[in-house]
Amino acid sequence: MLATVRRSGAAWTRALLLQLLLAGPGGCLSRQELFPFGPEHGDLELEAGDDLVSPALELSTALHFFDRSDIDSVYVTTNGIIAMSEPPAKETHPGPFPPTFGAVAPFLADLDTTDGLGKVYYREDLSPSVTQLAAECVQRGFPEVSFKPSSAVVVTWESVAPYQGPSKDPTLEGKRNTFQSILASSDSSTYAIFLYPEDGLQFYTTFSKKEENQVPAVVAFSQGLVGLIWKSDGAYNIFANDKESIGNLAKSSNSGLQGIWVFEIGSPATASGVVPADVNLGLDDGTEYDDEDYDSVTRVGLEDAVTTSFPYEAPGRGDSGTYNTPSDLSPRRMATERPLTPPTEKTRSFQLPGERFPQQQPQVIDVDEVEETEIVFRYNTDSRQTCANNRHQCSVHAECRDFATGFCCRCVAGYTGNGRQCVAEGSPQRVNGKVKGRIFVGDSQVPIVFENTDLHSYVVMNHGRSYTAISTIPETVGYSLLPLAPIGGIIGWMFAVEQDGFKNGFSITGGEFTRQAEVTFVGHRDKLIIKQQFSGIDEHGHLTIDTELEGRVPQIAFGSSVHIEPYTELYHYSRQVITSFSTREYTVTEPERHGTAPSHAHTYRWRQTITFRECLHDDSRPALPSTQQLSVDSVFVLYNQEERILRYALSNSIGPVRDGSPDALQNPCYIGSHGCDSNAACRPGPGTQFTCECSIGFRGDGRTCYDIDECSEQPSVCGNHAICNNHPGTFRCECVEGYQFSEAGTCVAAVGLRPVNHCETGLHDCDIPQRARCIYMGGSSYTCSCLPGFSGDGRACQDVDECQPSRCHPDAFCYNTPGSFTCRCKSGYQGDGFHCVPGVVEKTRCQHEREHILGTADSSRPRPPGLFVPECDEHGQYVPTQCHSSTGYCWCVDRDGREVQGTRTRSGMRPPCLSTVAPPVHYGPPVPTTVIPLPPGTHLLFAQTGKIERLPLEGSTMTKSEAKTLLHAPGKVIIGLAFDCVDKMVYWTDISQPSIGRASLHGGEPATIVRQDLGSPEGIALDHLGRNIFWTDSQLDRIEVAKLDGTQRRVLFETDLVNPRGIVTDSVRGNLYWTDWNRDNPKIETSYMDGTNRRILVQDDLGLPNGLTFDAYSSQLCWVDAGAHRAECLKPGQSSRRKVLEGLQYPFAVTSFGKNLYYTDWKTNSVVAVDLAVSKETDSFHPHKQTRLYGITSALSQCPEGHNYCSVNNGGCTHLCLATPGSRTCRCPDNTLGVDCIERK
């Protein structure tokens, strides 16, 4: 019988392969072209009925699914699912996706086979004919993959009916669906093949028993719940979940063959999500297309284009209905894909040869927004631009409406915006971005250049007031930018208070627009160009902006103040373009000299153009007034020289043109109908009269302006030894070689000018010294070369995996490290890894103890129930957490196996024990222990055993691709981290050889500052104002303080402490906070920094409080609890606590920056980001080395504002200055000899 099945299968396969391989894109899949199925092919048949599940189908070849490779049985359901484990009884009928179990769903719906209404067949097939056919299907979908399956799970739903519920729908009467799923597996991967024959899908919805109405079917994959103890939703992918997409499954494809869909579901590439094939219909039939093939394609408008922007790291682990999307899901560029002109970030047009395949619709991948935070992938197989397949382009706070020519989005009541972007009315808004500039100041011939400068703005919408701060602006240009309040004024326009019938910028543009402005200073030849790109709302709910400044501004003396009178500005609207023109006056008051403060009035002319996208399909939407007036008052501008921060504040309202003002005359200059040249200013006259005046640097009648070539007309304008370069509206001078600008602005001979050795000065573009070296070639030239162990051009060097060509002994393991590698002999061998010989390794104390206990028990009889056997790690050392197998109690032990008092926990809870034994250092090429200099910006620093890593932050987003090792510290177990924002130093505690160390982030060797009289130093904190460090010692049960160099130590507390760990400071207020995870009495305590006013801050409802952080900007104290599995916050002066997030796995340490908490987790070996505003985990970072993570801290680019009484001159103290709220205390170090120390309050 089996032979017969195989022969018939082989014949069928040959026939079908021939048909499939010759099928053109217009050919639909017939039922006869499905994989062979039925009892005659060895199929099992699922019992007839509703919501049934098959017995386990045991597999001879394990199936790979997401990150698993050990699935040896599957379950088949009536409702279109292949389950990786037996579905719970409550989930046998369809419910919300994803389910709690792993699932492959080719057509998830409430299906019914009662009374013979269809059949469900299933089997595992090992025959070469079927596996060969599966391989061919996969090869079509993934041409670059060589896949040879050894088995295939074949499941067929034949003529199954929809469940109709109590009130049957007559339109579904007699409708039947037939479809098939193949799970083909090799030793290393598994692929899913879905087959939908022509006329195989006759219904797309079924009656939901939960929602009691018709709901669409779903095509999807789900990993199910993940986690050993604390369960959370794993990854999942939804590829179709609406009627249009389901209806086109049989008509389209992602594998090039109509009705056949292929997905990679189990391999190293699918750990975080399924990878779909991306082969378009008919693209690989050998036909070449000419440009004429595209002539019949109709270009779609911006509102019709399909969104294809992909959030490759979607939020977040543990969130309901979310998953991490791998970059492999990024759609590969199709051969016939050509972008719109101009291309946009969020849109692209797919242009298939319309006359060649008229029945086919272009296939794209959509991104759906679901409930604000969920992001799922969906195949959209219909090109019609309606709300049905474009709802995701609207905000979650908007409704989508279809019109004759397309769709539009409109914010719902209570929200404002353009429909694509909506924010709650009256809610404060934040705007973040970057600023770069190249600005000449006064007569200087050398520009001031700055890049990657932060811009932050806060808007009080109810008052229309915006506050904008631009940081790290050089003082050489900072004061001269004070008059340019409109740099931040655009944000005021966006959120101006709206008068009835008038719209502010956000209501019109949704914060998605481009702005170009030109500022011309009257009486000067100075002009500044401002370019700004607003990109809408990011994943954190903040508007994003990029600003570029270029040109020349008049010089304003250091220390001057600028006053700008209230002003009005007209905004003129035409289709998708806004223009405005105005003249502004400002007064500069210079610093007081000889008892007087000179002041001068100045004027500049302002012109700007704003371009944006608007929905043109909704003719019923009220037209905007052609002209609106922005009124601005309470203008405040300030440059803080110490902080190098430029600040603008303005109050804004938008409304009609006011009667009695010049604007009311509707002069052509105001309404934009003047016809002046783009390089001319319109000068209003009486009534409707006006004149056009070419801008400085241009010549003409105003309606036509030509650039003046100053270099030709004034050949000597730059003077001797200089070259003149003409630019539109201006010119620039450059000194010839051997000359440089003097203070007078003329070119003079460069005295003693010598070739520059860029390698010595460090002004080269070679990679960092840990990866490359700079080689001086003479003159001013150099070359870059990668160091041994790295490859590249010297400017970018990559680590070479030396373990690929194994350099270690055959009886040794090879471990690749940055720029090097290490070797270690295998168990049972001795040596340095390069030479290994058989030998018996001397047993450790833990191994001896185990053997002694186990040897006393008779191996022929069961072990006595009360017997405790210690657990040893792979190196033979005591595992830091020991548990009794009978009682379930766990406790911490030291390196000699002795129990650490106060750590024993009840059954079911594991204490957060630390290993005091560093892993062995293996022989091999040395790893540099110098600090790799930290780039500019804010970074997270976190500790792993033997090293500290850095993770850059872009805003509050972790830039995971830029994560690198900051410091290698082999032989250490680094626990706590603290950062000094003043000297840019990182401090740490090491419990292997108890010590406290530090290192400069500018580079160099680390240093140990405390090494005596330490037990187990764990938490460490720093007062950057008083210049002190504080640390906890869980073995000596005390808290100490010292100066930053480790001198002048003083014990603050040594009573009522059992397991002190986390510790933080509030430098401005002079407070200290710490955790004690004593199992009998866990608590969070506080005191002043001098040790007075000690008291318990939190004591109730704590489990194992580990990490602690204090945010100086919000004055919030937050902690993570490994016993209660949650993060909490409070303001120390208030009694109420806020549970930020529950369900954490095993948090250890925590830090804060901006709106986020970042904590390290022992269960997942990752850094996790938590958004405090929405109480959700938004991202996670898994280091390449999967070992336990310990301390974490924020390395801020600049210190928080504020001071305490120890900030200046050490508070007048001779030794330790310890801040207190509103004062300070002078203390002497312990064991002080002599009388040179004075204690006082």
Describe this structure in words.
It is a single chain. The radius of gyration is 36 Å and the shape is globular. Strand 35 (567-574) and strand 36 form a beta hairpin. It has eight domains: 27-274, no CATH class; 385-424, Laminin (Ribbon); 425-657, Green fluorescent protein (Green Fluorescent Protein); 708-747, Laminin; 762-795, Laminin (Ribbon), CATH 2.10.25; 800-835, Laminin (Ribbon); 867-912, Invariant Chain, Chain I (Irregular); 937-1196 and 1204-1225, Neuraminidase (6 Propeller). The strands form 25 sheets. An eleven-stranded mixed beta barrel has the order 27-28-29-39-38-35-36-37-31-32-33. Strands 1, 6, 7, 8, 9, 10, 17 and 18 form an eight-stranded antiparallel beta sheet that branches. It is built from eleven helices and 84 strands. Helix 1 (2-22) packs parallel to helix 2. By secondary structure, the protein is mainly β. It is found in: Secreted, Extracellular space, Extracellular matrix, Basement membrane. InterPro entries: 6-blade_b-propeller_TolB-like, cEGF, Cueball_EGF_LRP_Nidogen, EGF, EGF-like_Ca-bd_dom, EGF-type_Asp/Asn_hydroxyl_site, EGF_Ca-bd_CS, G2_nidogen/fibulin_G2F. Keywords: Basement membrane, Calcium, Cell adhesion, Disulfide bond, EGF-like domain, Extracellular matrix, Glycoprotein, Repeat, Secreted, Signal, Sulfation.
